[in-house]
Amino acid sequence: MAIQNRIADFHADMTAWRHHIHENPEVAFEETQTSAFVAGKLSEFGIEVHRGLAGTGVVGVLQGEGRDTGKTIGLRADMDALPMQEENTFAHASKVAGKMHACGHDGHTTMLLGAARYLAETRNFSGTVNFIFQPAEEGAGGGKRMVEEGLFDRFPCDMVFGMHNWPELPPGKMGVRSGPVMAGADRFEITIQGRGGHAAQPHLGVDPVVVAAQLVVAAQTLVSRGLSPVECGVVSITRIHAGTAFNIIPNEVKLAGTVRALTPEIRQQLEDGLRNLVRTLPPVFGATGELVYHLGYPPTINHADPTVIAAAVAAKVAGAENVLGDMGPSMGAEDFAYMLNARPGSYVWLGQGGSALGCSLHNPRYDFNDDVLPMGASYWATLVETVLPRAA
Ligand SMILES: [Zn+2]
Ligand SMILES: [Zn+2]
């Protein structure tokens, strides 16, 4: 088997759906038209539709034709676009100023719809498939909200699977790996409080700029000296605001940045380390420090057994030689992490190509590669027929 033939038959339909979604991008939690489109298609295919989870979320529920084994699976796609201006000029470019599908979620939604159509026509499996269309993947945590609002209580899933297109991987290839695949991403703000005064009389005050400079350098040791050289993490201070003039020492400095880590342990270590530095370093200079730390998406960590299944299915669809098991993890983040923290599962990358031409994720000239729609949909369909084989 490779691409499911029946899915290849409606490649043109999928391309049209993808272009429709691309033309009408909606950002986090505003996916009303997109979710109505998804719900309409699922109903058209004869799939039971549930709306309203996390606001604009949609779940389709489909039973196989075989004897019900009680087994269940969840397949997840994200639906949201990004708040950015598209620079493409082709016919299906965004019709909405300042909004664009630059991460390929239009393609993800379409591939899951394609699989839903095929599976509803064939029903050659036993058990229940939950098609999970989530809002707000891009930073706003729609996946988290779906889990919190009872996604897996209302729609039980023994395992849950996700997929993202990957421009650095050529079309026809898939990336599957066990363990961490995407990083946890937190952000923080720091305030260094000193005592301002005349720049010519530094001894009469406490200069928070000098303290902030020490802190920026010291924060780099959390990774370079705190982590084993073969582990990875990121502490980036990306914003420093202070001062109004060349001859005034300001009262305070405000800094902000992000922490990235591939495991919960390293994430915690970096947060603790930053807290400790902000608490203890400024007083050495007579200043005080305050840290506000915001937990973002946790690391996305693939479970071992579901990943073995995902790799076998990818090999069936793409050919074993086209499945990369040794792709390094990405330090980007993904809110599918919340689903993987709640249920066993695996998240794979689908080759998309085009990155050499600037078609990288979140680029204003990005466009999902329609050529890979049948492969992605076939992966979903084959996964269901593999995990939920038809029982007599
Ligand atoms: Zn994105
Ligand atoms: Zn994305």
TrEMBL record:
Q: Where does Mn(2+) bind?
A: 103, 105, 138, 164, 362
Enumerate the Gene3D superfamilies for this protein. Answer: 3.30.70.360, Zn peptidases
Write down the Pfam families for this protein, in alphabetical order: M20_dimer, Peptidase_M20
Free-text cofactor note? The Mn(2+) ion enhances activity.
Key words, A-Z: Hydrolase, Manganese, Metal-binding
The keyword Zinc belongs to this UniProt entry's keyword annotation: no
- Highest taxon of the source? Bacteria
Q: Which residues form the Peptidase M20 dimerisation domain?
A: 184-281
Write down the required cofactor(s): Mn(2+)
Q: Name one GO molecular function term.
A: hydrolase activity
PANTHER family referenced in this protein's UniProt entry, alphabetically: METALLOPEPTIDASE, PUTATIVE (AFU_ORTHOLOGUE AFUA_6G09600)-RELATED (PTHR11014:SF63), PEPTIDASE M20 FAMILY MEMBER (PTHR11014)
Family under the similarity heading: Belongs to the peptidase M20 family.
Task: Report what the protein is called.
Answer: Hippurate hydrolase
**What is the organism of origin for this protein?**
Nitrospirillum amazonense
